[in-house]
Amino acid sequence: MQAAYRKHYGLDAVRKSLAHFLVGKTFRMLASVTVLLLLARVLPVEQYAVYIAFQALIALLDVLTSIGVQKVLFRYLPELRATGNNRAAYRLLFYGMLFRLLVVSLLFLAALPLLPWVARVFNVEEWIWLLPWYLLVGYLRLGAFWLSQCLESLLWQKESQYSMAVGGAVAALVMVYLAVVGELTLERVVLAEGLGESVALSLLVLSWVRRWRQDQQRAVGDSGWWRENRQRAVRYGLWSYLLSQSSLLYGSAPNRLLAAHALPVSELAILGVADSFMNLARKWVPTRMLMSMVRPLAMARFAATGDFQDVTRLSDFVFRINLILLGLPVAILTVAGPELLAWITAGHYPEAGYLLMGFLLVLATQGMRDLLELMVQALEKNPILLWTNLLQSASLLIAVVLLPVVGLWGLVISNLAGTLAANAIVIARLRGLGYRLGWRLDLTAWIGLHCALSIAVGLAVEKGMGSPSMAVVCVVLTYAALLLLKPPLSRDETQVVTSLMRRRLVARPAEPKSTPSLGAVQD
Predict the structure, then answer these.
(1) Where does the chain cross the membrane (predicted)?
(2) What is the 8-class DSSP label of residue 106?
(3) More confident residue, 140 or 100
């Protein structure tokens, strides 16, 4: 078992995967930023608002079609690989993806007769002819995303990241060309995205088959694993399905759809810009970007050792890195949000500046939520999450009440209140079951202090010099200097980060004392 763990999830395996992970994520980020800037700057406001509604519908269908299979794959693929049961892992991946593809295909077909009603409710009747085509794009996108996450669970970062990066690059390049020749319209955006998603999905399938054929140990393991663990896996999948449906009314898609129904097109477009940048940030902050590395590592390590503190230490470390990276844009947007968004969107959406700052604060609380879910999933205590998901969904009612009073800020307030309350309940339940989190709150407090001091410096410069650009520069320099003077990391965490940067990690899971643990409680 230890040999299989070291081979597939040891520190040396992580180091090798990390390079592909970072390169692929970087190119995917560049493609995503390119598309976002093009659409915000070039696409007419009315068409951009329709595009935002289309995206929200696909995200909602993603939740509705979350039947629990994907969560089962994320939970048990790392466990099977870490314990050397390759045959069962490959079978689970193949049949799991096949079953989900069948169910999702049927559900997407069932949605077609409802499109006229959907278009009427969300004020996109003028573009109803395009909606079925965007459903096809969404179908391809979800398939590629699911498969890429499964490959990431096996730490096949090269195959997963590069395939998605190439698909994103194809879509971005087509849109750049259309913008240059002055032909970037909503229907052509849908065509470009469909082409990119098709390329990504094709490359992912080919990479999956190639890695399977190259694995000389693919037949090693117990083919009867599913029979012995079927009840356990099905129970886990059913709870995962309930959890996904219980959070149906929380998040980006419900926010957009509520705004599409209740607000003018101009405000929906403002929300679309702020929410798109927030979703972009969500993809690249560690609690999401590194989740494809953190989840399999945590699950594999927990399967190999059974030590819950391994999961909490890793989660605490990732959460603080998350806050460090979010602290800088929050400070910048607090000081010069409207000016920055006016420059980015060619003067179309300056009002999105402060709104984006608010959503980034929500994102910080969601980062903690993601890591708490990881802990609960490792323990297979999914019932803990059910009631808190329902609480988060119910927070949308706060937004319904606040939208006429404070506008789009009602969404920020409701999302923030729902997530904070849900996180507090999960932490209390874990403690009640005897699972101590042991997070370094003292180190977390330093991040808040660094952010507050940077904001104070930026506001002082803005008031004294009247230059938003100079204020932003001072915020960046102050924040960086404070992080260097007092990094919010323990000594062991600093050693691990330094080793990763120098590419000198050595896999020693059998000798934990010689290898610093992420999130260790030493100063």
Answers:
(1) 21-42, 48-69, 90-115, 127-148, 160-182, 188-209, 323-346, 352-372, 384-403, 409-431, 443-461, 467-485
(2) H
(3) 140
